[in-house]
Amino acid sequence: MRIARFSKIVATFYRFGLDEFFAGRARVGFIHRLCQLTPLPRDLSAPLPQRVRLALEALGPIFVKFGQVLSTRRDLLPEEYADALAHLQDNVQPFDGAISHQVIARNLGRPVAELYAEFDDVPVASASVAQVHRARLHGTDGKPGRAVAVKVLRPGILPVIEQDLALMRTLARLVERFLPDGKRLKPQEVVAEFDRHLHDELDLMHEAGNASQLRRNFTGSDMLLVPEVFYDYSAREVLTLEWMDGIPVGQIERLREAGVDLKKLSRFGVEIFFTQVFRHGFFHADMHPGNIFVAADGRYIALDFGIVGSLTESDKHYLAVNFLAFFNRDYHRVATAHIESGWVPKETRAEELEAAVRTVCEPIFDKPLSQISFGLVLLRLFETSRRFNVEIQPQLVLLQKTLLNIEGLGRQLDPDLDLWDTAKPFLTKWMNEQIGWRGLLRTLKHEAPEWATTLPAIPRKLNEALSGKSTELVVQGYIQLMREQKTQNFLLKLIALLLAALLLHDWL
Known about the structure:
Elements: H1 2-15, H2 29-37, H3 48-59, H4 61-70, H5 79-85, H6 97-108, H7 112-115, E1 116-119, E2 125-126, E3 130-137, E4 147-153, H8 157-178, H9 182-185, H10 187-201, H11 204-217, E5 224-225, E6 238-242, E7 247-248, H12 252-257, H13 262-280, E8 282-284, E9 292-294, E10 300-302, E11 308-310, H14 313-327, H15 331-341, H16 350-361, H17 374-386, H18 394-413, H19 419-435, H20 437-454, H21 457-466, H22 471-483, H23 490-507
EC number: 2.7.-.-
Keywords: ATP-binding, Cell inner membrane, Cell membrane, Kinase, Membrane, Nucleotide-binding, Transferase, Transmembrane, Transmembrane helix, Ubiquinone, Ubiquinone biosynthesis
InterPro entries: ABC1_dom (IPR004147), Kinase-like_dom_sf (IPR011009), UbiB (IPR010232), UbiB_bact (IPR045308), UbiB_kinase (IPR050154)
């Protein structure tokens, strides 16, 4: 079975001329020369990035999904390849409605007729991992039940996934070994990341939890609607969500006909993004137009919660600092923020990083602010960081991908959208809240439960460090204390520093 699948991959590789990747390579150039001598028909009419996309589509849904994930790694791929892969589509035939009945009954323990008053056997959407049916719950007290969307995992998908993943791992090892850029592209790491995403999608309860969190974060919002999860009708292979009526956000003419304020909608998109990132630290990371609808009242509707991103308080702080510094052209602050955050090695000279950032960003800022792309700024930042041996963190890559989607959507709705004008007041207010007295009170309230156990331990830890009667041990003890998980709060670090100074003063 695996040999047959591998043969298809090789044939597809040949058909679309992907051997061009090996042209002129000392160790693998013979593959390109051999393919050129083979007289079988080939399709070489499109540019190479487009042929890569066509090859992945020909190999089926798992490779399509891999290409979609790969398109988010703009820190690794050339821009033309990332753009081509971003247009990959799941063209997957739906499976029979009777099979959906079997999957639902096996997971929920009751037949579909008992669970739902109505169930449309013809799916409204079909993708590589699951398909969606419209249904209605049973009503009570003579009232009709609520309309729902029932997502059903594609049967028999796990063996197919495991087989294709095994082949991808083999191909990744070959790429890393034989291509000059193999190690920089980190193919094994990318496949491992894809493995994690895909297995998360195979457990629909994972998506249910994401949807519930996002819905809770936007309760009462006048900008975003998130469907309710019906947990009594959900399991690992079945997810039942509130049915949401709306217009796909990409259908601009229908939105105009419905009287939707497109300029307001475009601003909402930016505000929703920054709210998720900086207020919640939890964001929908797959916000392409296919997953976004617009309700009759002009609010966005979010769908498909399989991929989300999360950010730590430190991530949020340094992102805000970087955005503000970038758009104030304070490149020295950009450089120092990168070093402070640990995104680049600590031995990096701030002046060198500052010069590199200035070289990349000045041409961008030569345009009016309304035409500057936040996503492009992040992308250029990643490209610059590569020179300084930075390890780009996955949550930041997801963030950059989401930001590009939001920008593209916002400017499709309103070509004159000034993202900076919309975002700067939000970021400035957020930063003031973090570093002002309100931020201090919030931090004190948040950290107070930890103090009962942390504060009493500080003198003991410092005394242990002093037991060797060595100034070096005092310093080492303080450094060790600073690395403790529970002493990451600034105020606790300050207290610890004062105690260390007092103890050291008494000893000396």
